[in-house]
Design brief:
Rossmann fold; four-stranded parallel sheet; six-stranded mixed sheet; 10 strands; globular; 10 helices; alpha/beta
C-alpha cells in the first residue's frame, strides 16, 4: 500500500513551468503568464492530478475493494482514473453515459487497456443515478467500492485543488481558468491570497455559483467573477468560430489547446484583453488545466 508521502510524490509536482507571452493590446504590449498544468503528465496531468490526489488517499485509508466513477466517452477524468488504477494497482470501474460504440473512443480503449472495467448505461439511467446518495447503489457488486463523482468533483477533489495555489506567486493579481463543475476554482479560491482576483470562464452554464458559494459556507474569496459569455452554446457544442480560433492557435503556438475547455478560456482571455477588461497594472496568470488526453488521436 503506498504511503501518503509516496502518493504526494506521485500526484503533486515539485514545480510547474510558467510560460510568459506578450500580447498586443490596443497598441500596448501586455505580458500574459500561463501556468502549464498540462505538462505534469499527458494523461493524469492538468487539474485531474489534483482532483484525484485526496480521493486516492481516501481509498487507501479505507478498506474499499476498488474505485468506481462515472463519465462520458471522452472523459479526461475516466482516462486519468484508469491510468492511476493501473499504476497503483487499484481496481477501477467506469460507468459510461450512452450506448457502447462499434468502435470505442480512444478514451475508452485506453481505459480498458489500463484495466478499467467499463459499464455502459443509458442517458436516462445516468440522469437517475445523479439523484442517489451513492449513485452506484443499483450495482450491488460495487457496494464496497469508493465512489468518485463525475469529473472527480467532490469535497476531496476541492481539497486537492487547493494545492494549485502554491504554483501561483502572490505578485499575480488576476487568475483565469476554465470552469466546468467549479471544483478546481473552488479549491484554488480557498488558498490564494485575498488580493488575487479569480475569473472563471464557464464552459457551460450550470449555475456553478450555487456550488462554489454553497449555503452555510464562508465566502471562499471576495474577488471571484464567473463569466458565462464564452460557453458557445453549451458544453462541447461545436462552433466554427471557436474551432477556427483553436486551429489557428495550435498552428502558431507551442502550447496546445482544445475546444472544450482551454479553447474557450484562451479565446476569453484574448477578448477580455481587447476590451481593456484588466487594469494596466494587472499581472495575469492563465491556468492551463490540461484536457489533452485524446488530442493527437
Amino acid at each position: 500500500m503506498p504511503l501518503a508521502a509516496h502518493l504526494e510524490d506521485y500526484f503533486i509536482p515539485k514545480e510547474v513551468p510558467v510560460d510568459h507571452r506578450w500580447a498586443d493590446v490596443n497598441g500596448e504590449n501586455r505580458q500574459i503568464s500561463i501556468l502549464r498544468l498540462d505538462t505534469i503528465h499527458p494523461i493524469i496531468g492538468g487539474n485531474k492530478t489534483f482532483k484525484l490526489y485526496e480521493n486516492i488517499k481516501f481509498y487507501f485509508e479505507n478498506k474499499f475493494d476498488g474505485i468506481v466513477s462515472v463519465g462520458g466517452q471522452y472523459s479526461n477524468h475516466i482516462a486519468a482514473l484508469a491510468h492511476v488504477g493501473k499504476d497503483l494497482s487499484i481496481p477501477t470501474v467506469g460507468i459510461i453515459r450512452g450506448d457502447a460504440l462499434d468502435e470505442p473512443t480512444h478514451t475508452i480503449q485506453q481505459a480498458m487497456m489500463n484495466g478499467m472495467e467499463i459499464v455502459y448505461v443509458s442517458r436516462e439511467k445516468y440522469r437517475e443515478m445523479r439523484a442517489y446518495d451513492h449513485p452506484c447503489s443499483s450495482f450491488p457488486k460495487y457496494k464496497n467500492f469508493n465512489f468518485i463523482p463525475e469529473g472527480g468533483s467532490n469535497q476531496l477533489g476541492v481539497e486537492g485543488c487547493k494545492q494549485i495555489a502554491q504554483f501561483i506567486p502572490a505578485e499575480y493579481t488576476h487568475i483565469l481558468l476554465a470552469v466546468g463543475t467549479g471544483a478546481t476554482l473552488k479549491g484554488l479560491a480557498r488558498q490564494v491570497e485575498k488580493h488575487q482576483n479569480i475569473i472563471g470562464i464557464k464552459v457551460l452554464e450550470a449555475r456553478q455559483e450555487e456550488y462554489i458559494f454553497q449555503s452555510g459556507e464562508a465566502k471562499v474569496n471576495d474577488s471571484i467573477v464567473l463569466n458565462a459569455d464564452f460557453t458557445f452554446g453549451g458544453y462541447a457544442r461545436k462552433s466554427t468560430f471557436l474551432e477556427d480560433f483553436v486551429g489557428k492557435w495550435n498552428e502558431n503556438q507551442k502550447i496546445a489547446i482544445e475546444p472544450i475547455y482551454t479553447g474557450r478560456l484562451f479565446y476569453a482571455v484574448q477578448h477580455l484583453l481587447q476590451q481593456n477588461y484588466f487594469p494596466k497594472s494587472a499581472k495575469i496568470m492563465v491556468v492551463h488545466s490540461g484536457g489533452l488526453q485524446y488530442f493527437d488521436h
